[in-house]
């Protein structure tokens, strides 16, 4: 039982940290880069909203409540990352991340839904004929949350180093990292089957 639990949690962790599917990591970088360690509660809440959206769409897919065209979802995932990174570029240094909690949190929940739908087909195969779909989903979600917290910590830590040791301004740090994310997602958008 405990072995199954760890297997499912590890599956969630690996889903986020998969080097071949780094879209999840890019989204978390874009989401986290405007914040500092002192904002950890807000960041944790944002990341949890993403996990909630991701898990919700997996629940809907696992119970065959929703089925979405994979090509559209695969296109929307990099578009959602692009939007968050672009938002950072335009709001860097303006304190926008401290305003309008509702908009930021709802958009993060929406992005979580999209990202979850992108993984739904693979996840349904993982579930197979399992009788405990909900338990599996929760264990998997725990793994996702753990991996996301690791990434968030790394981004916050790098931000701290860059801004204290190398005297980067927060604005420059946000601009540079968001520009890198944009540079990485543009090819993903252009190469998607949706545009082919």
From TrEMBL:
Residue ranges crossing the lipid bilayer per the database entry: 20-37, 44-66, 72-90, 102-120, 140-161, 173-190
Domain of life: Bacteria
Keyword Plastid recorded: no
Pfam families the record matches: HupE_UreJ_2 (PF13795)
Classification via InterPro entries: Put_HupE_UreJ (IPR032809)
The entry's keywords: Membrane, Transmembrane, Transmembrane helix
Record's protein name: HupE / UreJ protein
Source lineage: Bacteria, Pseudomonadati, Bacteroidota, Flavobacteriia, Flavobacteriales
